[in-house]
Amino acid sequence: MRRTRRTTLITGCTALVIALTATACGGDDPVSAGGGDKSLSGQTVTVAGVWSGSEQKNFQKVLDAFSEKTGAKTQFVSTGDNVSTVVGSKIEGGNAPDVVMVPQVGVLKQFAEKGWLKPLDEKVKSAVNANFAKVWQDYGTVDGTLYGLYFKAAHKSTVWYSPEALEQAGVEAPKTYDEMLKNGRTISDSGLAAFSVAGQDGWTLTDWFENIYLSQAGPEKYDALAAHEIKWTDPTVVEALDTLGKLFKDKQLIAGGQKEALNTDFPGSVEKVFGPKPDAAMVYEGDFVAGVAKDQFGKTIGTDANFFPFPPVGKGQAPVVSGGDAAVVLKDGKNAKAGMALVEYLASPEAAAVWAEAGGFLSPNKKLDLSSYGDDVTRATAESLVEAGDTVRFDMSDQAPAAFGGTKGAGEWKILQDFLRDPADPKKTAAELEAAAAKAYGN
Amino acid sequence: MTTTVVKEARRSSPARPDGARARRSRRRGRVIALLFALPALLLLGALVVYPVLFSIGRSLFDASGDTFVGGENYAEMFRDPTTLKAIRNTAIWVVVAPTLLTGLGLILAVLVEKIRWATAFKLLLFMPMAVSFLAAGIIFRLAYDEDPDKGVLNAAVVSIHDAFDEGSEYPTARARDGQGLNQQKDGSYVTGSPVSPGSATALGLVGVAPKDLPADARPAQQAAAQEAGADEVRGVVYLDFTPGGGGKPGVVDSRESGLPGMRVEAVQGGKTVASTTTAADGSFRFTGLKDGSYTLKLPKENFEQPYDGISWLGPTLVTPAIIGAYLWIWTGFAMVLIGAGLSTLPRDALEAARMDGANEWQIFRKITVPLLAPVLTVVFVTLVINVMKVFDLVYIIAPGPVQEDATVLATQMWLVSFGGGNNQGLGSALGVLLLLLVIPAMVFNVRRFRRSQR
């Protein structure tokens, strides 16, 4: 659950309070921009999405650019964490937004199956064909119809490190998983733990697993497992767990050992590497680590903090696990036509460039000029995402039903936390995962 | 409530039946009574009876609410080990929390009665009641944090512990495998091959960050190169890692530092015959050792891990810890209620007992408690009902990995229905179970109220 992730950036429980206020004040105040003389003047496009704060501000810049071009007014409504509930109630109340930025594949599918979505029209389709890798089209497609356009993406196969710590240990950014562990042990010899693992947040563990699994078992198996077409008791799963377990149980590799890892939340794990008193040299998580390192700990990205792509495991390819927000058009929106025009605009490299310049944004749009990004590290992340092309895979736990892949203290999160506590028996863990998955998928 | 109203109305009508007129007026009385009760009945029906019935109905359907599944949700509920854990935890809560609270409240109320500034004291204890559960939960989540830098409880525990037992200089140091030092079960290191007088050894350790080295540490190479005299065993304990890499394992390279202040023991036949401490360049020497072979040992004191406190929010302690937070909030309530009961006790009974020579303990046990029994029961039962629905504290204080270990029926009901599972059928079944468990306590309380009204 990407949104939950972002809230966890704010330390511990304060997040709760802040989340509550954020939802309260992220309300409906219309931010409209207008003027222009173009075809859509006089219409207002309402857009709903999970963004708030600086993301909302930057997206507004994109909307403003749209207004300037077409003359349509725009209004952004922040839904808070639970998009599907908010959008559902708005549709029932006869006040449906025209465009929704959907944060998960599962939600997109759910919307499409409920019949809320308008298929994207030919113009958008051809733009998507020309500008995006096929995999992004597939993730926007339900039962052969294209509904969603992935406007913003996340790169979840980045390992962030402190260049100073690696230099201290005299090692380079690794090229393979085994080399990563070997370098990790050298780093540990230098007196710093290799990794800080945020075991208190289950989603970071699922991301660890997904990267290893995608690389080790390959994209086909990954897709099958994500759809629960193969069981979690499959030998490939056991093998991936075994690989992960080797890392988990190595006291030299994990800051403070398993017990401390279980007591570390995501912001805490970033603090252990980029905070004032570093305990570890590397932390694995998505591109948003940079944001935390920069905003909370004042690190300069590129010099004090850098990343290397999650290295390939065994004989596999380097994994690229991703996530993203897709724009969809609702059938019940009052200005669905203008909404479609907005989605068409979002499919253009021009729209992506607006946010890319503002920062905190990756675009899956391959036509976007990489020089639009504000800094080298973001550029490198974007490049790696676009270059991965069709091998990009969506975060598996985000594709799963929430009961399995997105619930604190239950399902995959909880089982992998148990595995972190005691990685002795991957087979047993696989069986537990299968039992939980079977229940959640209902098959 | 409604029943009382009806009864009152009936009572106010003429008592003796007097033919048709009396009957008519009684009927009219009844109609009026019903009219008065109607708004209350409607509200009660809409807000209590209807939701209860709806939940019972919903519990017979599956997650989507379309398919009738009968008792399947109830069966599923008891098949799920999490529910059983929730029932077990709720049972612990119901037994422990009200008992402790009533006891604490009673003791405090009796004690407070006898001190000056009683009101100020009561006010102070009552104050947590003004804090919302959410805020209290966040406060205690922090207080219980395992990191002594964050959690105040562990900060206290650790500082008390460290006052008696200081930590070691090199908690993170360890030897490389296969470089001549072997780790023993107790955490100490011994040399693999024996040493004898006239020889020098280099004991390499790793895992100490440059910033963690003592300020007086010096490079060890020179000391390592020194020859040993015929009657001495000498050597150096050094950090076998060159900052920036490039050092050879097992070799004292030029920039590698000695580890000062390390205890070294010479052991022969399992007995420590000599011990010393390393100098600034990591060197040590034993002189006047008899011929023979010795093992060098770096005892475990060198490597002792810093004490990191109690894991309050670990799987075992999490429920007691949350109950502790609950006590903090509710003790004031119990104390004030019992204190009010205490102030209405007949003073003459206490005086009489005192005159008869009873001591305070006897008075407390034989007179105060029995006379207070009704109040104590009300407090206890109210708390039982209250504890049944405890949710916020458990949800906020328990961290993700132990949430399942701390779960109670109310949190489980919410998690299953809205917190990801989205199975409102199963959630309703849990709600019905909770209702069934609360009903006896409620019936008991209502009965008591009725009796005391009579």
Give a verbal description of the structure:
The complex is a heterodimer of chains A (443) and B (454). Chain A is of the alpha/beta class and 443 residues long. Chain A has 22 helices and 13 strands. In chain A, the strands form 3 sheets. In chain A, strands 1, 2, 3, 4, 7, 12 and 13 form a 7-stranded mixed beta sheet that branches. Chain A has a 4-stranded mixed beta sheet with strand order 9-10-8-11. In chain A, strand 1 (44-49), helix 3 and strand 2 (73-78) form a beta-alpha-beta unit. In chain A, helix 8 crosses helix 9 (177-189) and helix 21 (411-421) packs antiparallel against helix 22. The radius of gyration of chain A is 21 Å and the shape is globular. By secondary structure, chain B is α+β, with helices and mostly antiparallel strands. A 5-stranded antiparallel beta sheet of chain B has the order 1-2-8-5-6, with no helix packed on it. A 3-stranded mixed beta sheet of chain B has the order 3-4-7, with no helix packed on it. In chain B, helix 8 links the parallel strand 3 (200-205) and strand 4. In chain B, helix 3 packs across helix 15 (424-453). Classes of the chains: A alpha/beta (443), B alpha+beta (454). Chain A binds chain B through residues 12-14, 16-17, 167-171, 186, 188-192, 199-202, 252, 259, 262-263, 265, 402-403, 406-411, 413-414, 417-418, 421, and chain B through 82, 134, 137-138, 141-142, 146-147, 172, 176, 206-210, 212, 240-246, 311, 396, 398-404, 407, 415, 419-423.
